[in-house]
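step=encode ok
step=design start
structure_in=
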C-alpha cells in the first residue's frame, strides 16, 4: 500500500460539557484529523484533541517536516516510518509538535493496516479479551462542590463503578478535602474514586494532602507533581499507601524510562498522542515486565483496541470528550467497553460534523 496523499483537517467545536476555564482551557475543542490515502484507495484516520489552542503548530510540523518524509512509502511499514520520523526530528524537539504529528500519522497507518487485513487492530495485535472496564471521568473542579457531586451521581447512575474527580488549582486545601468527602459520600463505598491533581502540588504538599484524603478510600492519586519531578513521584509513592499514578504528560516510552527503572508507580497512564500506537504497545509490554498496569489517558474509542489486546490493561478513561463526533461511537455500557470488530480502528468522523466545524 503506497501512500499517495495526506490531508489535514482542523476542527473547532464546542464541548459537550464546558470545562474549567480557570485552568486555561479554551471554551472550544480543537481537533486535528490526518487522513492518509493509499494508491489502492484506502484511507486511514489519525486524530488528536487539543484542550488548549495549538493544533496549527502541529499542522505546520506535519506539513513542513513529517509528511514529506512519508509520501510514496509503504503504509504497512509502520515501524520503519515511526523510527524514521522519531530519529529525524530529534534535533527539532524530543516532544511537542514533532511527536504529536508523528502520533497522528502512526494512528492513521495502523488504521490502514487493519483495513487492509480486514481485521480490527486488537485482533491483529493478538486478541486478549472482548470487554474492558472503563471509568467515568470529568468530575471537573470547575463544576464547584455541588456540581462535582451531581456529576459523580450521574456517572454512577450511568453504570460506572469507578469515577475520577479533580483537586488542586482552583480550590483551597480544605475545599479540596471537603469535595472529595462529598463525592465519596454521594457515590457510596462500592464505587472507586480516583483523584486527579493535574500537577498542582509539590511532593511535600502531595504527601500532606494524600494523608488527609486516605480516609476517603481514594483508589489512586494522579499526577501529584510536575512530570519531570521523578524524585518527587517516588517520595510521594514511598510516603503514602494510596496508589500514585501518572504518565500522560510524558512523551514516548523513553520519557517514561525513570518509572521503569524505579517501578514504584503501579499504574501508568500513557497518552497515545505522545508516541502513537506503535510506542504505546511497547510501553505496555515494558510495563508488564515490571508488574505495572496500563490505564491510558483519554481516547476510549481508540484505547479499546490496545486494551483488548494486552494482559496488563487495567481500565479505560471515558470522559466523553469526542463521543459526539463519530459515525459509530464507542460507548461504555454497564462500566464496560466492548471491543469493536470493524477493520482498523473503525472510526469515522461524521461528515456533518466536519462541514459545521472545519476551520481554515
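sequence_out=
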Amino acid at each position: 500500500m503506497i501512500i499517495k496523499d495526506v490531508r489535514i483537517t482542523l476542527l473547532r467545536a464546542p464541548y459537550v460539557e464546558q470545562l474549567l476555564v480557570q485552568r486555561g482551557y479554551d471554551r472550544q475543542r480543537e481537533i486535528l484529523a490526518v487522513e492518509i490515502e493509499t494508491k489502492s484507495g484506502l484511507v486511514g484516520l489519525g486524530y488528536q484533541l487539543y484542550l488548549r489552542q495549538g493544533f496549527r503548530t502541529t499542522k505546520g510540523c506535519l506539513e513542513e517536516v513529517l509528511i514529506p518524509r512519508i509520501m510514496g512509502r509503504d503504509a504497512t511499514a509502520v515501524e520503519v516510518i515511526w523510527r524514521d520520523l522519531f530519529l529525524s526530528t530529534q534535533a527539532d524537539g524530543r516532544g511537542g509538535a514533532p511527536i504529536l504529528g508523528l502520533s497522528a500519522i502512526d494512528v492513521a497507518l495502523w488504521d490502514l493496516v487493519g483495513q487492509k487485513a480486514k481485521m480490527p487492530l486488537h485482533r491483529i495485535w493478538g486478541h486478549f479479551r472482548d470487554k474492558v472496564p472503563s471509568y467515568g471521568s470529568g468530575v471537573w473542579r470547575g463544576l464547584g462542590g455541588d456540581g462535582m457531586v451531581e456529576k459523580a451521581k450521574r456517572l454512577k447512575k450511568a453504570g460506572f463503578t469507578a469515577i475520577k474527580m479533580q483537586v488542586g488549582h482552583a480550590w483551597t486545601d480544605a475545599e479540596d478535602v471537603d469535595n472529595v468527602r462529598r463525592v465519596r459520600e454521594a457515590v457510596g463505598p462500592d464505587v472507586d474514586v480516583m483523584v486527579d491533581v493535574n500537577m498542582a502540588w509539590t511532593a511535600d504538599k502531595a504527601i500532606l494532602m494524600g494523608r488527609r484524603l486516605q480516609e476517603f478510600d481514594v483508589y489512586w492519586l494522579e499526577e501529584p507533581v510536575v512530570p519531570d519531578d521523578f524524585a518527587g513521584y517516588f517520595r510521594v509513592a514511598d510516603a503514602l499507601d494510596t496508589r500514585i499514578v501518572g504518565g500522560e504528560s510524558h512523551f514516548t516510552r523513553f520519557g517514561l524510562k525513570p518509572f521503569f527503572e524505579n517501578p514504584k508507580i503501579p499504574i501508568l497512564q500513557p497518552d497515545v498522542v505522545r508516541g502513537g500506537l506503535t510506542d504505546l504497545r511497547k510501553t505496555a509490554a515494558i510495563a508488564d515486565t515490571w508488574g505495572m498496569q496500563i490505564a491510558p489517558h483519554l481516547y476510549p474509542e481508540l484505547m479499546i483496541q490496545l486494551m483488548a489486546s494486552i494482559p496488563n490493561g487495567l481500565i479505560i478513561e471515558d470522559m466523553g470528550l469526542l463521543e459526539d463526533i463519530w459515525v459509530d461511537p464507542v460507548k461504555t455500557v454497564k462500566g464496560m467497553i466492548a471491543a469493536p470488530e470493524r477493520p482498523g480502528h473503525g472510526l469515522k468522523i461524521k461528515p456533518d460534523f466536519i462541514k459545521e466545524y472545519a476551520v481554515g
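step=design ok
step=annotate ok -> Confidence is low (pLDDT under 50) at residues 20-24.
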